[in-house]
Write a structure and sequence with these properties.
This protein is 64% helix and 3% strand. It is mainly α. The strands form two sheets. Strands 1-4 form a two-stranded parallel sheet. It has a two-stranded antiparallel ribbon with strand order 2-3. The chain is flat.
């Protein structure tokens, strides 16, 4: 029995679906999802380590409770107080190791179309050795010579990669809006109730966008002052109105009708983009450093923020924990949803033919999409469904490339982008001009991308269909 147990554990380390074999109580899982889950787990572990390194609370607790702390720090040449193992510089090094890990696998998995190839086995297995490799690469980054030059150069690489990651998510959001409208519009040919669904959802989204802008005008502006907030709310509200007018303008409507690949332009897409613009505006205003002025009694008071927001950050540990959880959840959702075959095709301008559309409420999983194709595969083994026997269901190289960019995005976000020297996880939500302008820029880029899709049929031929 012991020999069989050891053999089973070795299979978990080297097998192509180790996480399912290791846990007997786990439900059956597809091989493709099992692989992505394991890489996501490694990603979460490194993000947690980065957040711990950015915590002043953890650093002070270590100094107080670890005996001979200063001697240990000197022994490993990390400084008198281990300053090289905490703060933004440590996060830069750890994220450098993680980014290199995913970039190497991106190169190793280029042009893999068959899950039975040797390189595909490397992608789908050897989890224990991959964990050791990831740990070695993150640790080895601390021994890079000429650290100052490395950190200065890596900072710019991280900024470029972080903006690329944001750009990919914005492109996919715009594509999601068009896909939603195209799918539900296809249902109107057979059932007129889809018109009611389109109208109801559009009304709800415009109500949310309008209500959100009004509430922000009430809580984030005052009669005297808050000029910047008033200007930004006016500009972003005007952009929402602009994209709505352009979406239903006769010229754009005629273009979309004569373009076989481009879905019909309408208020559903512009309503979704308006909701996202409203969310980014709220998130940016919430991330803006608070303004403090003297009142008539000579006391410091904050302005241009809601009254209930002034006491929002008292429990720093709670805020840090919630912030870390939300950060991991949002990034993982973006990574995993943007690495499906349909998403990678959308980024390359390949769309499904309109006649193949079948309207459904859960339109994200089409009849010819990834999930249905997986369900038709033969089930083998006690816990694993091998759904990639004939071909891969997602691009391995693109999957790793997105996680490579996500590593850079995490590095820049956790270290407050360009306000890195004063950054720590306890003040993650307390406000930063860098984060504020990154979110506002994302908002405006999203609007530009959507406007580009509306007028694109003027300047390009009909897109290629992927069947």
């Amino acid at each position: 029995m012991s020999a069989q147990c050891c053999a089973g554990q070795f299979a978990c380390c080297c097998g192509n679906a180790g996480c399912s074999f290791c846990c007997g109580c786990c439900p059956k899982i597809r091989q493709s999802r099992s692989t992505r889950f394991m890489y996501a787990l490694y990603f979460i572990l490194v993000v947690i380590v980065c957040c711990i390194m950015m915590s002043n609370t953890v650093a002070s607790e270590m100094r107080e409770h670890i005996p001979f702390f200063e001697d240990i720090c000197k022994g490993i040449k990390a400084g008198d107080t281990c300053e090289k193992l905490v703060g933004y510089s440590a996060v830069y090094r750890v994220c450098f190791g993680m980014a290199c890990f995913f970039f190497i696998f991106c190169l190793l998995t280029l042009n893999i179309n068959n899950s039975k190839s040797c390189r595909a086995y490397i992608h789908n297995g050897f989890w224990f050795f991959k964990l050791l490799l990831l740990g070695a690469m993150c640790s080895g980054a601390f021994f890079i010579p000429d650290q100052e030059t490395f950190l200065n150069a890596w900072r710019y690489v991280g900024a470029v990669g972080g903006f690329l990651f944001i750009g990919i998510q914005l492109l996919l959001l715009v594509e999601f809006a068009h896909k939603w409208n195209k799918n539900w519009t296809a249902g109107t040919a057979s059932n007129k109730l889809w018109y009611a669904s389109l109208s109801l959802v559009t009304l709800i989204m415009y109500s949310i966008a309008t209500g959100g802008l009004i509430l922000m005008a009430v809580f984030y502006t005052q009669k005297d002052g808050c000029v910047e907030n008033k200007i930004l709310l006016g500009v972003n509200g005007g952009l929402c109105l602009l994209i709505s007018v352009v979406a239903i303008s006769p010229s754009v409507q005629n273009l979309s009708c004569h373009s076989t690949g481009q879905p019909h332009s309408g208020l559903l897409q512009s309503g979704l983009i308006s909701c996202y613009v409203t969310y980014l505006t709220f998130s940016a205003l919430s991330s803006k450093p608070v303004e403090v002025v003297l009142d008539e009694h000579g006391k410091n008071v904050t302005i241009c923020v809601p009254d209930f927001g002034q006491d929002l950050y008292r429990d720093k540990n709670l805020v840090a924990g919630l912030g870390t959880t939300l950060l991991c959840a949002c990034i993982l959702y973006s990574c995993l949803t943007s690495t499906t075959r349909s998403s990678s095709d959308a980024l390359q301008g390949r769309y499904a033919a309109p006649e193949l559309e079948v309207a459904r409420c859960c339109f994200c999983f089409g009849s010819g999409g990834e999930d249905t194709a997986e369900q038709q595969k033969v089930k083998e083994g006690p816990r694993v469904v091998y759904d990639e026997k004939s071909s891969t269901v997602y691009s391995y190289a693109y999957f790793h490339f997105v996680f490579f960019l996500a590593s850079l995005y995490v590095m820049m976000t956790v270290t407050n982008w360009f306000n890195y020297e004063s950054a720590n996880i306890e003040t993650f939500f307390s406000g930063s001009w860098s984060i504020f302008w990154v979110k506002m820029a994302s908002c405006w880029i999203c609007v530009l991308l959507y406007l580009g899709t509306l007028v694109a049929p003027l300047c390009r031929p009909a897109p290629h269909f992927s069947v």
